[in-house]
């Protein structure tokens, strides 16, 4: 069985190599590192490209051990495996915001530029993972609302600690005639989306928790020894926070979908987040004001400085025929000051012209080849 599986792997590897060799498009990479419980470091490299039939392909090229999480080590491993696959035309490399990845990108620029494998000498190579930035923004905001979140996490953890408690809680739900069919779920503190799912479920069962307190004498006492019993204000904060986080949760689902190209949607999502954070700063709740300010500062750290942005996110939006440059012009003026919007539009136009000049010749050759192919097929058809 082992031999058969390995042979299948080798056969598929040959097919993918042939597909990559015959593809006219550049390859986009996503890569991340992970450490196992045995303290072994691993690196995953995934290629995204459009084949000659205009189909989007996603292929995991390698899942391999690496010596360390240092930037140069990551860069060397990526280069090694790309050469093994025969890939020398890169468009972007999407990574999270760890500083070691900055070093890895610099290493890849240095190695691939002499081979003319990058667009604009690697100017647009480094693509920061939008989902990871979203995670940083939301986690920053949750720090301010941590007390209310902890006060609700405590009851959820207590109920889920044993099947007997969970069954007793379900009986309380029936007595209170709560129609919600969801099941209490405990979050993972490092994943804000799981915190959202926990709050989204728990806020339906406030009355059931109060009923459960009457049936379990240890419930309230144990909570007060830890995070504390959730007050009316805590439940109000949790419901408001749940409504607020729902927007970020839905945006994350849209931008992390892998079945279609999402870069043309980035600008809409960034605009939505910016407007949401500005509106939240006007909330009458002081805690929400502070939370929104902290989140906006984190947002501006990545998307508030034009020089730090990868303009490909906006270029992709412009190239989408449904969203024209005038729309961007209007949206930028709505989002920010006139001077900042004007500067953004100037840089965006410069980037478009640079990309156009670089691809113009290749595009003409590509079209000419396709026309010749069609003419050849027509001639053969007429002969038949």
- The low-pLDDT segments are 320-324
**3D shape:** globular
Q: What is the gyration radius calculated from CA atoms? A: 26 Å
**Secondary structure category:** alpha/beta
Largest sheet: 5 strands, mixed
Mean pLDDT, to the nearest integer, reads 81
- The quaternary organization reads as single chain
Order of helical and strand elements: HEEEHEHEHHHHHHHHHHHH
Give structural notes:
The chain has 384 residues and is an alpha/beta fold. The chain is 63% helix and 10% strand. It has a 5-stranded mixed sheet with strand order 3-2-1-4-5. Strand 2 and strand 3 (56-65) form a beta hairpin. Helix 4 packs antiparallel against helix 12, helix 7 packs across helix 10 (232-255) and helix 11 runs antiparallel to helix 12. The longest helix has 46 residues, at 338-383. Residues 320-324 have low confidence and may be disordered.
Key attributes of the depicted protein:
single chain, 384 residues, alpha/beta, five-stranded mixed beta sheet, 15 helices, 63% helix, globular, DNA-binding, hAT-like_transposase_RNase-H, hAT-like transposase RNase-H fold domain-containing protein, ZnF_BED_domain_contain, RNaseH-like_sf
């Amino acid at each position: 069985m082992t031999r058969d599986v390995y042979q299948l792997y080798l056969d598929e590897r040959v097919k993918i190599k042939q597909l990559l060799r015959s593809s006219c498009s550049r390859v986009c990479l996503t890569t991340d590192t992970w450490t196992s419980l045995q303290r072994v470091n691993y690196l995953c490299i995934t290629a995204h490209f459009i084949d000659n039939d205009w189909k989007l392909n996603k292929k995991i090229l390698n899942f391999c051990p690496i010596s360390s999480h240092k930037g140069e080590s990551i860069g060397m491993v990526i280069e090694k495996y790309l050469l093994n696959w025969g890939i020398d035309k890169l468009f972007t490399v999407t990574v999270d915001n760890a500083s070691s990845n900055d070093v890895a990108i610099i290493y890849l620029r240095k190695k691939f530029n002499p081979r003319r494998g990058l667009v604009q000498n690697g100017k647009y190579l480094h693509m920061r993972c939008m989902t990871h930035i979203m995670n940083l923004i939301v986690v920053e905001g949750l720090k301010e609302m941590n007390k209310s979140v902890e006060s609700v996490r405590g009851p959820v953890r207590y109920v889920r600690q044993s099947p007997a408690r969970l069954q007793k809680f379900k009986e309380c739900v029936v007595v209170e005639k709560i129609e919600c069919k969801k099941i209490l779920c405990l979050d993972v503190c490092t994943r804000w989306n799981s915190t959202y799912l926990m709050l989204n479920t728990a806020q339906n069962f406030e009355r059931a928790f109060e009923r459960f307190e009457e049936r379990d004498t240890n419930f309230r006492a144990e909570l007060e020894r830890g995070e504390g019993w959730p007050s009316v204000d805590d439940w109000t904060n949790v419901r408001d926070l749940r409504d607020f986080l729902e927007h970020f949760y839905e945006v994350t689902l849209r931008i992390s979908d892998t079945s279609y190209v999402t870069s043309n949607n980035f600008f809409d999502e960034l605009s939505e987040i910016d407007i949401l954070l500005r509106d939240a700063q006007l909330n009458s709740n002081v805690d929400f004001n502070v939370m929104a300010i902290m989140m906006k500062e984190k947002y501006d750290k990545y998307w508030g400085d034009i020089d730090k942005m990868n303009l490909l996110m906006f270029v992709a939006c412009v190239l989408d025929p449904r969203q024209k440059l005038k729309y961007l012009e209007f949206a930028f003026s709505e989002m920010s000051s006139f001077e900042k919007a004007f500067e953004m539009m100037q840089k965006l136009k410069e980037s478009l012209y640079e990309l156009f000049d670089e691809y113009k010749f290749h595009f003409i050759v590509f079209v000419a080849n396709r026309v010749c192919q069609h003419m050849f097929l027509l001639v053969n058809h007429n002969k038949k």
